[in-house]
Amino acid sequence: MDHRFSLLFVFSLVIATSFASAADSDGDDVIIRQVVGEDHQLNSDHHHFSLFKSKFGKSYATKEEHDHRFSIFKSNLRRARRHQQLDPTAVHGVTQFSDLSPAEFRQKHLGLRRRLKLPSDANKAPILPTNDLPTDFDWRDHGAVAPVKNQGSCGSCWSFSATGALEGANFLATRKLVSLSEQQLVDCDHECDPEEADSCDSGCNGGLMNSAFEYTLKAGGLMREEDYPYTGTDRGTCKFDKTKIAASVANFSVISLDEDQIAANLVKNGPLAVAINAVYMQTYVGGVSCPYICSKRLDHGVLLVGYGSAGYAPIRMKEKPYWIIKNSWGENWGENGFYKICQGRNICGVDSMVSTVAAVHIASSH
Ligand SMILES: *[C@@H]1O[C@H](CO)[C@@H](O)[C@H](O)[C@H]1NC(C)=O
């Protein structure tokens, strides 16, 4: 049996019976016990853990490690149920990250460097007209989005967000989609924040997309993914070869906290580098995420590739559209590697740190 569906079944029981006690902070535990009884709960946790291990090929070296992971897994099941209650238009459940504590998850799979504000000297994107924007738009339909990649156990999200934006910009400039090297950024980009000199891009320990654009501008460009492949570690030396540059930055700028401007820049300039709070993404399975509450503390870099509204009927916000976001956790996460999050309230900070990049038009030989 597909554990997603069995979990969904539990969730739907929880939801059906829980609204009265949702205010109780430990409400879902109480309800689960009422629904299935304590013995069943334990058996069902074991069952879900077995399915999880086989689906994601997990094995643990020792009994201690196994028991430790099982206890984290159980608390993540409770967290997924809580997320489901707080975010009813998405589906939350077991993911490949269900045996990681929130701290491990942040350290290994996110990687946006903490910062207090955007650099005041960052170029601001010019204000664009917004009257003729399409109601739905998806750069995947226009060939500007490379296949979903996987950052592995390395806090290098920022490099994937930056390459994704430059891949799109380069496509607009050249009409060719070329996958670009995150490893070059991980190994070679140590660009520091102009305002916080001790805060620099540092491989698997995090970085910022704007600093990555600054590095790329100074270095001359990025190599192809295939010429400088991803290893998921930052222990290697920089192997940048200037003669193999595949795409170059012309300029980059930050977009104001205005969803119409974000949409207009997306349609005109290609996919955008955005930051987000990823707490709901650890348990996200599909649908449009629109949590009642979500921290705006940014901890993850991703790529905004489109927006839409079809098939989304939220309870609270009628016909509000959503953003379509490309993540870097492989195709087995989320909706084939993508995430949908509702527009309208700067949910999880998704509108607060958005940058656009333009690529140098490299004249192709005719
Ligand atoms: C950025 O570069 C592109 C491509 O060269 C150019 O068309 C655009 O005007 C530039 N934008 C800014 C704000 O300088």
Q: Determine the structural class based on helices, strands and strand pairing.
A: alpha+beta
Helical content, roughly?
Answer: 25-40%
CATH topology of the largest domain: Cathepsin B, Chain A
Ligand identities? 2-acetamido-2-deoxy-beta-D-glucopyranose
Number of strands: 11
- Total number of helical segments? 9
Q: Quick one: CATH class of the largest domain?
A: Alpha Beta
Q: How many separate structural domains?
A: 2
Main sheet properties: 9 strands, mixed
Strand content: 5-15%
The best one-word shape is globular
Mean pLDDT: 86
Low-confidence stretches: 1-38
The radius of gyration is: 21 Å
Gross CATH architecture of the largest domain: Alpha-Beta Complex
User: Going by CATH, what is the homologous superfamily of the largest domain?
Assistant: Cysteine proteinases
Q: Give the termini distance in whole angstroms.
A: 56 Å
Task: Give short descriptive properties of this protein.
366 residues, alpha+beta, Cathepsin B, Chain A, 2 domains, nine-stranded mixed sheet, two-stranded antiparallel sheet, 11 strands, 14% strand, disordered N terminus, binds 2-acetamido-2-deoxy-beta-D-glucopyranose
Structural summary, described in words:
The protein has 366 residues and is α+β, with helices and mostly antiparallel strands. The chain folds into two domains: 84 residues, no CATH class; 250 residues, Cathepsin B, Chain A. 34% of the residues lie in helices and 14% in strands. It is built from nine helices and eleven strands. The strands form two sheets. Strands 1, 2, 5, 6, 7, 8, 9, 10 and 11 form a nine-stranded mixed β-sheet that branches. Strands 3-4 form a two-stranded antiparallel sheet. The protein is globular. The N terminus is likely disordered. 2-acetamido-2-deoxy-beta-D-glucopyranose binds next to strand 5.
